[in-house]
Amino acid sequence: MSDLSGRTTIVVGASRGLGRGVATALSAAGAPVVAVSRTAATFPEPASGSGPIRTEVVDAGDATVAATLIDRHEPSAVVLVAGATPHMRPLQEQTWETFAVNWEADVRIAFHWLREILLTPLRPGSRVVVFSSGAAIGGSPLSGGYAGAKSTLRFITGYAQDEARRAGMDITFTTVLPQFAPATDVGGPAVRAYAARSGLSQDEFLARVGPLLTPELAGKSIVDLLQADASTIAPGYVLNGVGLKKLA
C-alpha cells in the first residue's frame, strides 16, 4: 500500500480529534476516504492530487453498520478511532453506567468491525488499524473502565490477526496506543483532571508529559503506517508527539 491513490480507507470516528486528523491526512496522501461518524462533519475540498472524502453519518456501534459499509465501499484499509469520552472521576465517584461507557462504545465498535472484517473478508493486502490508548499500559485511575476497555481493544485486535493467519487471509492488523492529545475531546478533560489531581497547572503537567500528540501528527503517522511494507508492521505501537514507537 505504498501508493494510497485509489485505495479506499474507512475511518471510523472521523468527525473530530485524532480521527479527523487521520481522515484529512489520508485524503492528502491520495486515498479516497470514507469518514464515518455519528454526527455530520464537513471537510475542506480536497486539493489537487488528494483523495475525495465521503461522509457516512451512522452509529458505528450498530451491529449492521460495519457489514453495510464494508460491502458498499470495499475498503483496502479500515482505521478504527471512534470511542466515548470517559467520565473523569475517581473510582468511588463513578456509577456502573459511567464506569462502563467505554466498554459499551469503544469495545462494542471494535468487536463489530473486526468480526465483519474477518467474515467478509477484506481483500488480500488490506490493513486494519485500531486505536487503543496509552492508558492500556499504565492505567487511568480517573477514567473508570477506560483503561481496561482500551486494553481489550489491543487484545481483540491481536485475536483478529491470529484468526486471519489461521484462515490464510492476507490482512494485517495492528493497534496504536496514543498518549495525551490535549487538543481532543478525550485528551483535554484528561489533562485538566490529572493536572488538578497532581496539584499542577495544566502547562506544568503537560511539560512533564513531553512532546504532545496532535491530530495532524496522528494523521501523518497513520499514513506512514499504511504505506509501510506489511512485513515490517508490529502488532502494536505507542503514538506520542515524537511519532510511532513499536511496543516491545
From TrEMBL:
Belongs to the short-chain dehydrogenases/reductases (SDR) family. InterPro entries: KR_dom, NAD(P)-bd_dom_sf, SDR_fam. It comes from the Bacteria. This is NAD(P)-dependent dehydrogenase (Short-subunit alcohol dehydrogenase family). Residues 7-186 form the Ketoreductase domain. Keywords: Oxidoreductase. GO terms for molecular function: oxidoreductase activity. The keyword Oxidoreductase applies. It comes from Saccharothrix texasensis.
